[in-house]
Design goal:
CATH architecture: 2-Layer Sandwich
Oligomer: single chain
Strand content: 35-45%
Radius of gyration: 21 Å
Order of helices and strands: HHHEHEHEEEEEEEEEEH
CATH topology: Alpha-D-Glucose-1,6-Bisphosphate, Chain A, domain 4
Number of domains: 1
Number of strands: 12
Distance between the termini: 49 Å
């Protein structure tokens, strides 16, 4: 009887402790100085992005010093042997909070990032046309690359540590294609890699073969800011000027996705 009574007394305190552990902000955030090269910090804090474009045997120069992210990205490109890479770093300043994100904020941001359908209609600057142009004419989640049945955007009350989804996205440059997205969620970061499940064509030219594109997007909590890293790596067609054209397109598209994401972050923080 005494043991039972003690357990009954402890149970409310245990539930209170669990609730408190879930609701308090995370305290694991790395500082910006730990994650990026000091030469980029002033530029990032000024609100500007930092970019790198490399053709022929590219080496990632802007990849943040975050162990889980590095493992995730290097593992994804180990068999790719890319011929080009376009990297971008950007710092999102939280409007109010100066603390690490809370469990609720991290969950909300994860669900906002999973809202693939909201990519429909976003605009990017087309260097070849020297004008703004629609990026995705349509964008949505599907049940798989074979059946392609449309599904609603995923939503999680308790997000998983890893997740794979398939999408069908009609791009005005590369056409109607199927992509695989692999998401990873850790204590202070979330990231995903997009891989093409169909051949990407530029007009009548097969520009990028199946599974020859990896586009990674990462968000790392830095207390008062979010460090955002994006990179597109591809094994592009070996045609004169094709690498330059694709790299220009990837860079401008990364800026469009950054703008889309910061709009999502504004709803959370």
């Amino acid at each position: 009887m005494k043991l039972k009574g003690l357990a009954e007394v402890r149970r409310p305190f245990l539930l209170l402790y669990i609730a408190f552990a879930v609701c308090v902000p995370y305290v694991f955030s790395a500082s910006l100085e730990e994650l990026v090269d000091p030469t980029h910090i002033v530029q990032l804090r000024s609100g500007a992005s930092v970019s790198e474009t490399q053709l022929k045997n590219p080496v990632l120069k802007l990849l943040p010093r975050h162990e889980e992210l590095r493992q995730f990205v290097t593992g994804a490109i180990s068999s790719l042997n890319p011929s080009l890479a376009v990297e971008t770093l950007f710092l999102y300043k939280k409007p109010v909070s100066t603390n690490s994100w809370s469990y609720t904020q991290r969950t909300d941001l994860f669900n906002q990032t999973l809202a693939i359908s909201t990519l429909t209609g976003i605009q990017y600057f087309s260097a070849s046309r020297n004008t703004m142009r629609t990026f995705y004419e349509s964008s949505g989640v599907i049940d798989g690359p074979q059946t392609k049945k449309p599904l609603p955007d995923p939503f999680y009350i308790q997000p998983p540590e890893s997740l794979t989804i398939y999408t069908r996205q009609k791009d005005l440059t590369f056409g109607d294609n199927i992509y695989r997205y692999d998401f990873k969620l850790v204590r202070d970061a979330m990231f995903f890699i997009q891989e093409n499940e169909t051949v990407l064509s530029y007009g009548i030219i097969q520009a990028i073969g199946k599974n020859r594109l990896r586009s990674a997007f990462a968000v790392i909590d830095c207390g008062d800011s979010l460090l955002i890293y994006a990179v597109s790596m591809a094994r592009a067609a070996a045609l004169p000027g094709m690498g330059d054209r694709i790299s220009d397109s990837f860079g401008n598209r990364a800026e469009a996705v950054l703008k889309w994401f910061t709009g999502k972050a504004d709803r959370v923080f």
